[in-house]
Structure formats: structure tokens, C-alpha cells
Amino acid sequence: MANAHKHKLRGIRGIDDETWDAFDEAAKAASTDRSSAVRAFVEWFLARDGASLPERPLAGAWSAPPEA
Predict the structure, then answer these.
(1) For residue range 1-30, what is the model confidence (pLDDT) as tens digits?
(2) DSSP letters of 7-34?
(3) Mean pLDDT of 61-67
(4) pLDDT at position 1
(5) pLDDT tens-digit map of 41-59
(6) How far is 29 from 63, CA to CA, in rounded Å?
(7) Half-sphere exposure of residue 14: CA atoms within 13 angstroms, side-chain side
């Protein structure tokens, strides 16, 4: 199919829009994207050979918690 994705879509629940958008900004500041950062974290969490935590950018505007 022309519009079929190569990989299954995985949903992450319980993350508000403000936090998800801040994660996108932080990932871009770290020269990556959210998907790559999440995959790297999962590989590290599973203690897979060669896995390491993704690089984290210095604190920025995204570091402030969302307003309640």
C-alpha cells in the first residue's frame, strides 16, 4: 500500500501536549528527534549490547514543568 507505514505505530499515553512539544524542542536541540531518543532509551533500559542513554541537551525553555 502506498500510504502504509514501514513500522507499527506505538502510542505513548499520559504525556500532555505541552510536555510532548517541549520534548520535541529538546530533541531538536540535541540534533535528534523524539522517536530516535525514545528508541535509544528503550534499548538502554533493556540493557541491550552497545546501548547507551541518548544525549540530553543542556537545560532550556523546555525544562520548566507544564503549568497546572
Answers:
(1) 567 778 888 888 999 999 999 999 999 999
(2) S------S--HHHHHHHHHHHHHTTS-H
(3) 88
(4) 58
(5) 999 999 999 999 999 999 9
(6) 12
(7) 0
- Amino acid, single-letter form, for residue 35: S
- Number of residues written out for the chain: 68
Q: How far apart are CA 16 and CA 24, in angstroms?
A: 13
Q: For residues 31 and 26, what is the distance between their CA atoms, to the nearest angstrom? A: 9
- Asked if 52 contacts 36 with a C-beta cutoff of 8 angstroms, the reply is no
Identify which of 65, 61, 68 has the alpha carbon closest to the alpha carbon of residue 26: 61
CA distance 59 to 2: 40
